[in-house]
UniProtKB/TrEMBL annotation:
Name by which UniProt lists this protein: Haloacid dehalogenase
Pfam families noted in UniProt: Hydrolase_3
NCBIfam families (alphabetical): Cof-subfamily, HAD-SF-IIB
Origin superkingdom: Bacteria
GO annotation, cellular component aspect: cytosol
InterPro entries: Cof, HAD-like_sf, HAD-SF_hydro_IIB, HAD_sf
Gene3D superfamilies referenced in this protein's UniProt entry, alphabetically: 3.30.1240.10, HAD superfamily/HAD-like (3.40.50.1000)
GO MF annotation list: magnesium ion binding; phosphatase activity
Length: 273
């Protein structure tokens, strides 16, 4: 095993992207870039672990000047960025989510579905298009997402906080046994195959790489990060996290707007190496 990596307290650093690594304006700070690169150069494995799709996460990894493994779609997909090789996928057939799609259509709630590398929508307007642009997503518009001939990895609905609160309540009675939902942001609810989570994907990836979970540090900010924070040997919530996420973490660092990732890596890895 890499000798430098052995000298670090944590060998693998799992980073959520939006609300954690990126500032609220979706930019990367120079402090975060510099510290993450230093950790990588000293032997740490950097893994972006995000609710984003693969093509939306890749530009962030490239801006960091890194390559390697990505966990995307809240853990439903694991990809090698160097060749876009799909290493793992947890999907479901489109017909499984038909009751949820019907509810979203009836109530005028925007939704999209994802395969490992694509995002499909039935409708677009200026507000929704601006949201996709912000997250570096190029959606493909189709007449009926349920007519897809590919397995899906995620269904997402987008709307106001009140709308998403209501969706969470309404969909509990509509969810088939094969899938589950999670609140991935104030304005988003995600549906994936039951058992899929960032934590489960991190556990699988750590086993493949031969890295004990005790040597994994994870940093996140929202409820879809909780499983990842709990699986890692050291789970850190940024200061802008809801109280429930902070309670699931071992430590709390500065906010995403105040270089929380930088401070956490410096404090718990680089200064202790």
């Amino acid at each position: 095993m890499n000798k430098k990596r052995e000298q670090l307290p944590y060998q693998l650093i799992a980073l959520d992207v939006d609300g954690t690594l990126l500032r609220d304006d979706h930019s990367l700070s120079e402090a975060n870039i510099s510290t993450i690169r230093e950790a990588a150069n000293r032997g740490a494995e950097i893994v972006l672990c995000t609710g984003r799709g693969t093509d939306s996460a890749l530009p962030v990894l490239e801006e960091l000047g890194l390559e390697g493994t990505l966990i995307t779609h809240n853990g439903a997909v694991i990809v090698d960025s160097r060749n876009r090789e799909l290493l793992a996928e947890e999907g479901f057939e489109p017909a499984v989510i038909e009751p949820l799609i019907r509810h979203a259509r009836t109530n005028g709630i925007h939704f999209d579905v994802c395969t490992a590398f694509e995002l499909w929508v039935e409708a677009l307007n200026d507000e929704v298009s601006a949201m996709y642009e912000k997250y570096l997503v190029n959606p493909r518009q189709v007449a009926d997402v349920l007519a897809a001939d590919d397995r899906l990895v995620k269904l997402t609905v987008f709307g106001t906080i009140a709308q998403m609160d209501q969706v969470e309540k309404d969909w509990q009675a509509l969810l088939p046994d094969a899938i589950s939902l999670i609140r991935s942001g104030d304005f988003f609810v995600d549906v994936m195959r039951r058992g899929v989570s960032k934590g489960a994907a991190l556990r699988k990836l750590s086993a493949v790489k031969g890295i004990s979970l005790e040597r994994v540090m994870a940093i996140g900010n929202y409820y879809n990060d909780v499983a990842m924070l709990e699986e890692a040997g050291l789970g850190i919530a940024v200061a802008n996290s809801p109280d429930g996420v902070k309670a699931a973490a071992d430590q709390v660092t500065a906010s995403n707007n105040d270089d929380g990732v930088h401070w956490a890596i410096q404090q718990y890895i680089l200064q202790k190496a």
